[in-house]
Amino acid sequence: MNFLNDLLGQLFKFVYETVESLGLGSAHISNYAYALIVMGLFYKVITIPMTIQSARNAEKQRKMQPELDKIKQKYGYDQQIYQKKMMEFQKENNMMQGCGGSCLTFIIQMVIIFALYKVIQNPKTYIHNYDKISRVFFWIPDLALADPTGYLLPLINSVSQLGFQYFNRNNMGAGNAQMNSMQTMMYIMPVMFFFIFRTLPAGLVLYWTVGNFIEIIIRGAGLLIGKIKARG
């Protein structure tokens, strides 16, 4: 983890210095804020392959749903047999089981957020004259501290998470209690994160929120393209 912390810290240093050299900072959005936004964008760019794979799995899930329903109707009387038949069908059709790429993306995101938290806790290691730089982001005077309102940015993040889950819900699979439970958890998590993020540095919340909005754009664009192709 120390290696990842240092790697992420060096990347953040590079991004910050690049943003600073471009003079993007303003009275409302500091270079520090821009650097965090770029970090969120960078993460989503490198995980696009997993996002695309999840979207493809969702489309395959939609097309295979009638067959999945038949399996449930035929073997639903015995949960053990049903689970076995479902797994066999998914394996035969190269379908991701469980939440697949979505869960993997989330796990990677959590690892990065913990590492970024360490970087924000020890910023002087990576940013020269850290005490003198601006860390403002609109109503937040210092992104190294929690949102002074106590709720606004965490609330925006939770809403963006719900938007992301709207596009992501089909990736979870369907037809059994385990999948339904996982889907329920995905809608509970934004509420949990709201309370967790209220006390964490606003910079972390900004990073996560940016990622959510980018994910929404990617998923929404994919859905739109899919509908256009279907009509064509």
Automatic annotation (TrEMBL):
GO biological process: protein insertion into membrane; protein transport
Residue ranges occupied by any Membrane insertase YidC/Oxa/ALB C-terminal domain in the UniProt entry: 32-217
Annotated membrane topology: Multi-pass membrane protein
Transmembrane segments: 32-52, 95-117, 187-210
GO cellular component, one term: plasma membrane
Keywords on record: Cell membrane, Chaperone, Membrane, Protein transport, Transmembrane, Transmembrane helix, Transport
GO molecular function: membrane insertase activity
Protein name stated in the entry: YidC/Oxa1 family membrane protein insertase
UniProt cross-references to InterPro entries, sorted A to Z: YidC/ALB3/OXA1/COX18, YidC/Oxa/ALB_C, YidC_ALB_C
Organism field: Helcococcus ovis
Subcellular location: Cell membrane; Membrane
Protein's UniProt keywords contain Chloroplast: no
Protein family: Belongs to the OXA1/ALB3/YidC family.
CDD domains found in the cross-reference section: 5TM_YidC_Alb3 (cd20070)
Pfam families listed in its UniProt record: 60KD_IMP
